[in-house]
Amino acid sequence: MDGRIAEMLHQKGATFVFLGVPKGTVFGIDLKCWHTDEEFRGIRLIPPGMHYIYYASASVTEIDDVSQRSGFFQYFNENDIIVKMWDKKTEDVSMEIVNEQTVERIRENLNNIDRYLAPYPYDIWSRWHCLSRQISEALAKKLSPEKGLIRSEEFHSIPDSERPRGIKKCKGSSKKEEKEKTTENREEPSQGSSEHLHKGEGSYQESSPGPSGTRRLSRMTEKEREDAMLPNLKPVEGTVMRFTEIPKNKYPPGSTPMEITKHHLDQSYTLELMIAQHDEPLHIIGELQFAYAIFLIGHYWSGFDHWRNLVLLLCSCEDALDKYRDVFIHFIATIQHQMKELPLEFLCGIEMEQNVFYKKFREFFRNVYSAKSNQNIIIMIEKLKKNLFDLFQWEFPNEDTDDDDEKPVVVEME
């Protein structure tokens, strides 16, 4: 580390104290993680700004056997000391706020515990800052679950009476009889009739509901039957991510068929609706960075889905390119860094013309050129194209032409 930077971090760097963490726990900050030893007490010399802290309990007997990752975003001001405690009962971080007296006592004895604090891995700081610079403290709090911890959603257990029972065959029914009875049930005009369903004569019976339920089941598709077998689980309050919902209707109410087609091709209207749900336009890029971080670092799969949907949306806009120029400048810069960190297996091995990211980037480049965008954006686009070629060998020739499956169909009239 450069001497000047080291001096700055000693004067302004923050400290994260994590007490009671068991040996072998996976602990990480930003793009770096370790297995803790018995003397681990936290991290020092943390650059002020937004950071992502995460952990996973390890097995006592097998160090490679770890639980799912849990994490949270934490904003550090200069010289901050943030203290968290490990809860042995729950084998998780305690969400109770450590009182000020304890924090001050640790601050006064910081020199004594300094040797138990690992230095922040400054070699990752530049990469992390490029991936997270638009995630503000308020935005991270807005998008995170109410309880603050980011991990796979927890669901309420359901009572036995509410568990799906499905359907069961009646004793003594052959496959042929079952098929015939199912056909009869589909043809029955009246739901009130139960003639074929009493005394074991029907092909299928519900475990608890009456005959009308059986007839409804007999008319279900295979997919509907499978869904009926799944329990209606409800997530535990405070554990659900609060991403901005992408509108399903991509056009204004009362649009003509021609306008509906336009809004599906150019999704600037949808982007406008999402930006309106944020305090400022650049927060949409902050949400893109937030979703990517919890997927890449926190191993939270829904983060990947949301990140992917936001990338596809931003690549599908043309009219918004000029109105939200700063948004798209930061989008291009962000996606350039994200693609470098993305595991190659997510995009390699897929035929270029079949890869949805490749096709959307190509569409985005065409939109930029056709909109006659700012010269700075054009320069950034050319750099992004070069980086994508270096990473994935993706080529983007003839941006002004359509892909084969997007070309208009010409019908010759006799």
TrEMBL record:
<feature type="domain" description="AAR2 C-terminal">
    <location>
        <begin position="243"/>
        <end position="396"/>
    </location>
</feature>
<feature type="compositionally biased region" description="Basic and acidic residues">
    <location>
        <begin position="219"/>
        <end position="228"/>
    </location>
</feature>
<feature type="compositionally biased region" description="Basic and acidic residues">
    <location>
        <begin position="154"/>
        <end position="165"/>
    </location>
</feature>
<feature type="domain" description="AAR2 N-terminal">
    <location>
        <begin position="13"/>
        <end position="145"/>
    </location>
</feature>
<dbReference type="InterPro" id="IPR038516">
    <property type="entry name" value="AAR2_N_sf"/>
</dbReference>
<dbReference type="GO" id="GO:0000244">
    <property type="term" value="P:spliceosomal tri-snRNP complex assembly"/>
</dbReference>
<dbReference type="Pfam" id="PF20981">
    <property type="entry name" value="AAR2_1st"/>
</dbReference>
<dbReference type="InterPro" id="IPR033648">
    <property type="entry name" value="AAR2_C"/>
</dbReference>
<dbReference type="InterPro" id="IPR007946">
    <property type="entry name" value="AAR2"/>
</dbReference>
<feature type="region of interest" description="Disordered">
    <location>
        <begin position="154"/>
        <end position="230"/>
    </location>
</feature>
<protein>
    <recommendedName>
        <fullName>Protein AAR2 homolog</fullName>
    </recommendedName>
</protein>
<feature type="compositionally biased region" description="Basic and acidic residues">
    <location>
        <begin position="174"/>
        <end position="201"/>
    </location>
</feature>
<comment type="similarity">
    <text>Belongs to the AAR2 family.</text>
</comment>
<dbReference type="Pfam" id="PF05282">
    <property type="entry name" value="AAR2"/>
</dbReference>
<dbReference type="InterPro" id="IPR033647">
    <property type="entry name" value="Aar2_N"/>
</dbReference>
<dbReference type="InterPro" id="IPR038514">
    <property type="entry name" value="AAR2_C_sf"/>
</dbReference>
